[in-house]
Amino acid sequence: MEEKALRIWFDPEGDLLEIGQTKPVKGFFRDVGDDIFVRVDHEENITGFLILNATKRMTKIREVKLPVKATFSKTEES
Fewer Cβ atoms within 10 A, N terminus or C terminus of the chain? Predict the structure, then answer.
C-alpha cells in the first residue's frame, strides 16, 4: 500500500473538518451517520473523512470515534 501524507483542512464558515490524502482524489462522500462522512474513490477505497459541525462537537465531547483505521509515520522533509 502506498503511503501518503495527511492533509487537514478546516472551513470555519461551514464548520467543516476534512482529513485525507495530500492530493484529493476524485470520488464521493458516503454518509456514515452523526454528521461524519468518509471520502471514497471510484474503487471503494477510503481516502479521507469529513466532520460536519466540527467546532460544535468540541464543546460537547473530547473524542470522536471514526469508522476508519489509520497508520501514521513521519515523512522526510524536502
Answer: C
